[in-house]
Amino acid sequence: MSSCTALRALAVLVWVAAAYPVVFRARPVQAGLAVNWGTRALHPLPGDITVRLLRDNGFDKVKLFEADPPALRALAHSGIQVMIGLPNDLLAGVAGSVNAAEQWVLQNVSNYVSKYGVDIRYVAVGNEPFLKSYKGRFESATLPAVQNVQAALVKAGLARQVRVTVPLNADVYESPDGKPSSGDFRPDISGLMVSLVRFLLDNGGILAINIYPFLSLDADPNFPVDYAFFPSPGAPPSQASVQDGNVLYTNVFDANYDTLIAALEKHGLGSIPVVVGEIGWPTDGSKYANAASAHKFNQGLFDRIVAGKGTPRRPQMPDVYVFALLDEDNKSVDPGNFERHWGIFNYDGSPKYRLTLAGGRPIVPAKGVRYLSKQWCVLRPDASPADPAIAGAVQYACEYSDCTSLGAGSSCGGLDARGNVSYAFNQFFQAANQQRAACSFNNLSTIVTTDPSQGTCRFEIMIDTGRHELTGKSSAAGARVGSSGSWSAMLVLGLVGLAVAAW
User: Fold this and answer.
1) Distance (Å, rounded) from C-alpha 208 to C-alpha 216?
2) Please, are residues 2 and 277 in contact by the beta-carbon 8 Å criterion?
3) 10 Å Cβ neighbour count for 107?
4) For a Cys-Cys bond, which of 119, 274, 462, 494 suits 430, CB 3.0-4.6 Å?
5) Residues 156, 405: Cα–Cα separation, whole Å
6) Per residue in 450-480, is it b (16+ CB within 10 Å) or e — as a string?
7) Chain centroid to CA 327: how far?
């Protein structure tokens, strides 16, 4: 989900209150699938394994939120088309200096195209820069940054291959009466939107819109649940369906998409290609974030993509970048605990649920993944969960690892007190590469070799980022794995020192 932000949840909620629209626009049907690859994980799946996972499952387009060197090197000569992001914090610098834009393009686009053979097709300038919650912070810099990046691509001789886009949140448009046909840009940025889209259109660029029915549902207790999902064949339409002339909108995606299209057409910009930059459903960290709901939503989405079925205003499905490929246990949880659980696959590339692609073919897991030893850190059998030192130990463990699955309604929300403590201890232990010192919580913990997983709660074993089957010692991806492991080890040693001192 850009990464998703708490700001986006608020923006979508405000927008939905008008009557559930958002929007997108259609392009010719593509044979492959597109997905967002986020890299904020403590033990990232090695790049070459990730690329093979993409190819094995038919993803031929990928979006990176920043020009991540290891990911880009892993994508070399892969045949996968790449969209790379220029983060919001770089907008002002690039907007204020053509030279800064040229240097960014040289280092992050030209270098990987010419030296590594990466098939970069788009540069995403900024990420949802016009969010209401940003209070105009990036509004003045976005268009100049786009213009300078475009000029830099022209100078580099890449403008015909690499196009420019701006991923936007659905709050940049609205419908006063809730009908998609009444869609228009948000009044405070209408002029800016027209100028931006006109520039993109004139220079062969595209528009990218992020849509999140889950955030609408999660943020608004009154949001109609069935309207967030794609209706099953033969199922009655949602009672929240929107009648717009002779068209009945039965789900929020179609209504949102066509609201944007109407806004573009209203300003004579209807020919701009529009892709769906982010859309998906998380599996943990919230009442509605679970595997069953994620399967229902994403299977409906994949069925639409495979069938090429678009919306009433754009009958052909546009490129849709599903959010996301993998879980990321090091992302900010400001938007909510669900933020680390958007992946179709778990952190290790194993499928969370069965998804069927074209021809009834199921998604397949990552190959060649190696794990740390089969051992877990848990609360000692003779230790009491009521021990006064437990609270501080758990707080510390969760501060430096991912405990988002412990929340109410989450996959580990049903654990008892002992289970909660053990889960937190193990998360820290695994994040620390199973260093024995990381399981020394004031003599409250012990290492076991019997899997303590219970029901839906999985006590994880982390990926061994020091070795795996597909990467050779001299490969670019292998270089990344080694540096990641070293960074993690140094971090953990520091944390363990702090922990010991604290107790």
Assistant:
1) 19
2) yes
3) 12
4) 462
5) 46
6) eebeeeebebbbbbbbbebebbeeebbbbbb
7) 8
**Residue 469 falls in the annotated catalytic set:** no
pLDDT tens per residue across span 14-69 = 333 334 333 333 333 344 799 999 999 999 999 999 999 999 999 999 999 999 99
Do you find a cis peptide bond into 100, omega within 30 degrees of 0? no
Please identify which of the residues 66, 102, 128, 339 carries the catalytic annotation: 128
Contacts of residue 224, Cβ cutoff 8 Å, sequence gap at least 6: 238, 239, 240
Instruction: Give per-residue pLDDT as tens, 393-445.
Output: 999 999 999 999 999 889 999 999 999 999 999 999 999 999 999 999 989 99
Sign of CA dihedral 178, 182, 185, 190: negative
Per-residue pLDDT tens over the stretch 264-274: 999 999 999 99
Asked whether 252 and 20 are in contact (CB, 8 A), the reply is: yes
- Cα angle, residue 220 at apex, residues 217 and 223 outer, rounded to 5°: 60
- CA distances 448 to 173, 183, 286, 422, 424, Å, are 54, 59, 30, 11, 15
Catalytic residue among 102, 278, 328, 460: 278
Q: Is 460 in the active site?
A: no
For 182, the token pair is 């009444």
pLDDT single digits (tens) 56-101:
999 999 999 999 999 999 999 999 999 999 999 999 999 999 999 9
Backbone angles phi, psi at 303, to 5 degrees: -60, -40
CA distance 50 to 415: 32
Beta strands in 109-251 (DSSP E): 119-125, 163-165, 167-169, 173-174, 184-185, 207-210, 242-244, 247-249
**Cα–Cα distance, 269 to 463 (Å, whole number):** 47
47: number of Cβ within 10 Å: 28
Separation between Cα atoms, residue 432 and residue 429, nearest integer Å:
5
Among 283, 300, 301, which residue's Cα sits nearest to residue 292?
283
Instruction: For 404, list phi and psi in degrees, rounded to 5.
Output: -65, -15
Enter the tokens of residue 13. Answer: 């909620």
How many angstroms separate the CA atoms of 358 and 250, rounded?
24
Cα 295 to Cα 375: distance, rounded to the nearest angstrom = 31
Planar angle of CA 503, 450, 442, nearest 5 degrees: 5
Location of structure tokens 């051992």: 375
Packed helices 476-502 and 47-56: angle between N→C axes, nearest 10 degrees: 120
Output the six-digit token pair for 431: 């994040």
